[in-house]
C-alpha cells in the first residue's frame, strides 16, 4: 500500500469510527502531508510501516525551525494518532513518535471584548446594505450563543426551536447540544430571514442552511472572519479579534455575572471542564467575590 492508501484508510477511520468533523480530519491530513513533503524533498523512500524513529526525529527537528511551538505540538499529536491507528490495525508494532515529547506550551489566555466593544461592533454594521441585517444576526448569534464559527455556518433553519427558546448545535465530533437563544437574538434572525434570506435565489443544496451569501450559497469560515475584521477596523478596535473572540466573550461575561462553570461547559460544548476552567483565570474579580462570599476567614 502507498502512503495515500494508508492516509485514506486513516481518514475513513477518523470519520466513521471516531466521528470527527471534516475540519479536524483535514488538519490531521495536513500534518501527514508535511511529513510526506519532507520525505520527498530529502529523497527518503520509506513506507508508513518501515519509517524509523530517526527519520521522524529529523522531520520534527526540521519543522521546529519554521513553525511555532503550538503548531509543532499539533503536528506531533497528529502523527502520533496516525501511527497509533496503524498499530491498532496491526500494520506495525510500534509508534515511531513514542519517545518524542511535544514542546511545552504556556497557557495563552483568550482575548475578550467588553460589552461596549460588542455594542460598538454591532452599531458599525451598515444596515442600508442587504448583507447588513444578516451580519447583525451573525454577530448577535455568535456572541449570544457562544458558537464556534463552524457551528455558525452550518446552523440549519430546522435547528431553530424558538418557541422553546433553544437552538440545536452540531459541534465537534458531530456531538449535538441545545443552547438557549435570547428573544432579542431570535428577533434579529427572524428579521434577516424575512427581509433578506427569503428574497434570495437559494441553491437547493443549502435550502435549510440559515446564513447564506447573496448567491444563495453557504458562507465560508473565511467570510465570517472578514466580516468581523472589517467591523473591528471600522471602530478602530485595538485588538486582534476573530469569531472565537465572541465565543470567549460569551463565556467570560456569563462567568462575571455569576454563571457556574458546569453550565458554561454545557453551552460551549466542551468535553472536559478543564477546558472551560481557563475562563476562571480571566475573571479574577469573580474569584475574589467567591472568597468574600463563602470562605470562613473572609473577614
TrEMBL record:
Keyword DNA-binding part of the UniProt annotation: yes
Keyword Cell cycle belongs to the record: yes
SUPFAM superfamilies in the record: DNA breaking-rejoining enzymes (SSF56349)
Cited Pfam families: Phage_int_SAM_1, Phage_integrase
Residues annotated as domain Core-binding (CB): 1-87
Molecular-function annotations in GO: DNA binding; tyrosine-based site-specific recombinase activity
InterPro entries per UniProt: CB, DNA_brk_join_enz, Integrase-like_cat_sf, Integrase_catalytic, Integrase_recombinase_N, Integrase_SAM-like_N, Recomb_XerD, Tyrosine_recombinase_XerC/XerD
GO biological process, one term: cell division
Residues at the catalytic site: 148, 172, 244, 247, 270, 279 (o-(3'-phospho-dna)-tyrosine intermediate)
Keywords per UniProt: Cell cycle, Cell division, Chromosome partition, Cytoplasm, DNA integration, DNA recombination, DNA-binding
CDD domains: INT_XerDC_C (cd00798)
Subcellular location as annotated: Cytoplasm
GO cellular component terms attached to this protein's record: cytoplasm
Domain of life of the source: Bacteria
Domain Tyr recombinase: 108-292
Function as written in the Swiss-Prot or TrEMBL entry: Site-specific tyrosine recombinase, which acts by catalyzing the cutting and rejoining of the recombining DNA molecules. The XerC-XerD complex is essential to convert dimers of the bacterial chromosome into monomers to permit their segregation at cell division. It also contributes to the segregational stability of plasmids.
Family: Belongs to the 'phage' integrase family. XerC subfamily. Belongs to the 'phage' integrase family. XerD subfamily.
Subunit structure: Forms a cyclic heterotetrameric complex composed of two molecules of XerC and two molecules of XerD.
Name of this protein: Tyrosine recombinase XerC
Organism, as annotated: Flavobacterium capsici
